[in-house]
């Protein structure tokens, strides 16, 4: 269909008052929307692959730093038998929220809340999670399984980019600079290995903390990726009018 | 009288000095480490070690191997050698050999007490204890609630009893108190060992003074760096430093007020023996400090073998074996994690 015919069709759809009724989207607009969805899908895929690669390198670094700490402190001081088995609340929690923006309604969004003190007062109800994180995770898995069929993930050899680190900070809401409370909670968490933690052990902790942030980002990007894939699939299945 | 040890040393200790010098020749060389660094799997490491003195200890271990298994079996070899020497030793060498193990005893006590605080099973903790630091009543440490009970119920009958006078309180045990207890005990132990070596006199006193002073200084630096950012006050930090060593007393006063690694560097660079150590580090960096200290320690320990008729060779051999076991642990971890490019970050060649 040529451009003039498309404009003519659009004009016919307008009522006598001159207000257009959105009975049918012009072909060019529909194609540009299709392109945007495909672009969004490819961008999400790219972000996802970069984050997965970044996670792999951060975890490698963290494990080596932990081995280095064991090397200097001694294997008996850093082992599974050092873990504190007393009941205590988690310093870091993952909350699941659902997007309310019109373009992403229903899309899950994971928020990492780091270093919440076990001595802090009870949170405001408006900040509390809408559901049990475990249940939310199960629902998310079911949603993911229903949409993600036949996606094959390729691997890249790219290193972590600074943009992905900044995006990480934005998504989790955690600033890159260390504040006093977070530092205090970090040392409190490390105290199970001894109150005087060496720099290598602190570095390992930071690496695993960064890995946790990256995991939350991966979950968010994956949700966005699957949403974009779903939209692209719908457009491919619907006939062009 | 110093210089006349050759007249009488061999009467009681000649056999054991020959034994320990024989053991020293069995330490892994640079060629051995090069072969180990090229291994692809832990089974390859086991195969290479089977041609060394560790062979009999690893040959019956089934695959797949774990890095902790390699460390445990290599440690068993050291324990067997130590027990043989201790059984053959007469006074004062037997007391000297026992002093070498008190550091491990302190670590074991702290491990049991910390694990009990964290509600771990005692049997699981006993398996993690260093074999050189075991004593009969160690399992009963789990019943103590504070340091006074710890001393009264268990430690009063152990060699660590004299070291508890400075840290007996009725405060309940928590992570910081336990760490202060560990370092206070170790400080008392080092000072006692130092005094014992001074009483022995001669070449033993001279060589061991240098080695123990280095140990005390290294501990002071590590305590300073590790306590940066923690709730340990300057006074408490100062109390954990030993009362001997090159840094005592003026270096300790300056270290006590350090707030970051660069200030520590500024203090240590005033002392020529430590200038070379800190010259290897870039500003703000502390990751390679451990390796720099280990290299300096190994150099001093190897020099102990250059002189005869003193007990320092026994101390030096034990420490060199422990360094070798640390090297094997690091190489195994790098191989297991497929990070062989990082293997030279922490391996310290002995010869």
From TrEMBL, chain A:
Residues 1-12, 115-143 have a biased composition (Basic and acidic residues). One of its GO terms (biological process) is vacuolar proton-transporting V-type ATPase complex assembly. GO terms for molecular function: unfolded protein binding. It comes from the Eukaryota. Pfam families: Vma22_CCDC115. Residues 1-31, 115-183 are annotated as: Disordered. InterPro entries: Vma22/CCDC115. This is Vacuolar ATPase assembly protein VMA22. The lineage of its organism: Eukaryota, Viridiplantae, Streptophyta, Embryophyta, Tracheophyta.
TrEMBL record, chain B:
Keywords: Hydrogen ion transport, Ion transport, Transport. It is a peripheral membrane protein. One of its GO terms (cellular component) is vacuolar membrane. Gene3D superfamilies: ATP synthase (C/AC39) subunit, domain 3, V-type ATP synthase subunit C domain. It is found in: Vacuole membrane. Its main location: membrane. Subunit of the integral membrane V0 complex of vacuolar ATPase. Vacuolar ATPase is responsible for acidifying a variety of intracellular compartments in eukaryotic cells, thus providing most of the energy required for transport processes in the vacuolar system. PANTHER family: VACUOLAR ATP SYNTHASE SUBUNIT AC39. V-ATPase is a heteromultimeric enzyme composed of a peripheral catalytic V1 complex (components A to H) attached to an integral membrane V0 proton pore complex (components: a, c, c'', d and e). V-ATPase is a heteromultimeric enzyme made up of two complexes: the ATP-hydrolytic V1 complex and the proton translocation V0 complex. This is V-type proton ATPase subunit. The gene is LOC113699124.
């Amino acid at each position: 269909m040529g451009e003039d015919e498309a404009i003519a069709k659009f004009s016919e759809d307008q009522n006598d008052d001159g207000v257009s009724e959105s009975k049918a989207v012009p072909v060019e607009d529909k194609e540009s929307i299709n392109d945007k969805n495909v672009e969004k899908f490819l961008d999400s895929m790219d972000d996802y692959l970069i984050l997965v690669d970044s996670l792999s390198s951060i975890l490698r670094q963290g494990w080596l730093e932990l081995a280095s700490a064991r090397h200097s402190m001694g294997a008996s001081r850093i082992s599974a038998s050092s873990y504190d088995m007393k009941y205590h609340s988690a310093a870091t929690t993952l909350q699941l929220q659902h997007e309310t923006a019109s373009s992403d309604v229903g899309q899950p969004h994971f928020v990492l809340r780091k270093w919440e003190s076990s001595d802090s007062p009870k949170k405001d109800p408006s900040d509390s999670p809408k559901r049990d994180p475990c249940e939310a995770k199960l629902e998310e898995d079911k949603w993911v399984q229903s949409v993600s069929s036949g996606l094959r993930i390729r691997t890249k050899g790219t290193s972590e980019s600074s943009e992905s680190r900044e995006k990480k900070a934005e998504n989790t809401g955690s600033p890159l600079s260390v504040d006093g409370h977070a530092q205090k909670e970090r040392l409190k968490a490390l105290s199970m290995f001894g109150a005087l933690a060496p720099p290598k052990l602190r570095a390992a902790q930071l690496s695993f903390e960064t890995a946790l942030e990256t995991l939350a980002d991966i979950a968010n990007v994956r949700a966005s990726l699957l949403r974009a894939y779903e939209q692209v699939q719908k457009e491919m299945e619907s006939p062009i009018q | 009288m110093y210089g006349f040890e050759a007249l009488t040393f061999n009467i009681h200790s000649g056999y054991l000095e020959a034994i320990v010098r024989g053991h020293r020749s069995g330490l892994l060389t640079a060629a051995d480490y090069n072969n180990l660094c090229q291994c692809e799997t832990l089974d390859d490491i086991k195969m290479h070690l089977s041609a060394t003195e560790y062979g009999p200890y690893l040959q019956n271990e089934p695959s797949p191997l774990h890095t902790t298994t390699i460390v445990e079996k290599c440690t068993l070899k050291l324990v067997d050698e130590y027990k043989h020497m201790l059984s053959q030793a007469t006074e004062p060498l037997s007391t000297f050999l026992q002093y070498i193990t008190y550091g491990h005893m302190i670590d074991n006590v702290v491990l049991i007490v910390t694990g009990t605080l964290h509600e771990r099973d005692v049997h699981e903790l006993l398996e993690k204890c260093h074999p050189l630091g075991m004593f009969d009543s160690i399992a009963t440490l789990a019943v103590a609630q504070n340091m006074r009970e710890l001393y009264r119920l268990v430690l009063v009958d152990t060699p660590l009893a004299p070291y508890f006078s400075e840290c007996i309180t009725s405060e309940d045990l928590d992570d910081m108190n336990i760490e202060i207890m560990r370092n206070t005990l170790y400080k008392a132990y080092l000072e006692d060992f130092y005094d014992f070596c001074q009483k022995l006199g001669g070449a033993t006193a001279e060589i061991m003074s240098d080695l123990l002073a280095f140990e005390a200084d290294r501990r002071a630096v590590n305590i300073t760096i590790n306590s940066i950012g923690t709730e340990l006050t300057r006074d408490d930090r100062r109390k954990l430093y030993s009362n001997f060593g090159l840094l005592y007393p003026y270096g300790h006063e300056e270290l006590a007020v350090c707030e970051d690694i660069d200030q520590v560097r500024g203090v240590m660079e005033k002392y020529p023996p430590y200038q070379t150590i800190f010259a290897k580090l870039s500003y703000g960096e502390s990751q390679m400090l451990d390796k720099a200290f280990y290299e300096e320690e190994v150099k001093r320990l190897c020099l102990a073998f250059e002189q005869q008729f003193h007990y320092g060779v026994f101390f030096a051999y034990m420490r060199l074996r422990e360094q070798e076991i640390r090297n094997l642990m690091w190489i195994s971890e790098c191989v297991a994690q497929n990070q062989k490019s990082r293997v030279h970050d922490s391996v310290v060649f002995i010869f």
